Amino acid sequence: MTGGAGFIxxxxxxxxxxLGADVVVIDNLDPAAHAGPPQWLNPRxxxxxxxxxxDRSWPSLDGVDAICHQAAKVGLGIDPSDxxxxxxxxxxxxxxxxxxxxxxxxxxxxxxxxxxxxYGEGRYRCAEHGVVGPPPRRTVDLDAGQFEPTCxxxxxxxxxxxxxxDAPSDPRNVYAxxxxxxxxxxxxxxxxxDAPVTMLRYHNVYGARMPRxxxxxxxxxxxxxxxxxxxxxxxxEDGGQRRDFVHVSDVVRANVAALTAPDPIPGVFNVASGxxxxxxxxxxxxxxxxxxxxxxxxxxxxxxxxxxxxxxxxGRAQRELGLSGTVPPQQGLVAFxxxxxxxxxxxxx
Length: 349
Hints:
The chain is α/β, with parallel strands linked by helices and 349 residues long. It is built from 9 helices and 14 strands.
């Protein structure tokens, strides 16, 4: 398990240990996300505080049934100054891991934590031209408060649809580009060595153990951190951006199914709740549960690397990974308002 001390990885470690698995974790405790080893380390797992990219840090793969690759630098980050760090930690590290597997003659089950960001914008339909892919949003439009994409052919308003796994990929920021490259690297390795790879495209994951006070985190964590500090959640654009917020427990279920099913379940899967929610709705739910009257503030600001709407079609994961009965966001977000968060990294805040 790479990244097994992090938000999602640590929950997957706990679930696998409870099933009786012997779990070895490799994690570099990236100081951009960790203040040190977190308090929830599982005493029944083995932890190696090393870099995935360093093949000398890996134990022998003899007897290893599966690799669960969760390690990654996530979030939109700050600006292009951290582009190299994203490429190094996401792509170079993944390539080094796959190369090490090849040299060791290991070609068993691999589960990759991917992301819905590979889609870029979600799926849109024009009344006249059918399904279309809007181009990247322009600064001039965003400055004018025009946040909704329009048809690239006729300029008409578009309606949003669920995004299936076979939708075209169109990464719109550095993080998204590195996640798509991870998928390509894993697919190339899998074809060469005839290994099964399951790629889980997480949508907006939230839950206990998210890092607080860092730009390398999901929007739910950012809003929670603002509330915890006594500040109103700051909503970009007009708050109407639609996302699919999926509870970490459901993400764990998808990973466990992919890792432990009697036969491998290769392919790409949306890991999502199936319940679209706007950012304003999400922030309002958190603020109401917080109970201090810190209502969200819609700022009109924007981040150029953001997309407007991404809402998943969860059908394939429901059928093949058994990911039905997911936690509804209105229920899970209320609990998240008081869930413990990870200590901020040094210098954050």
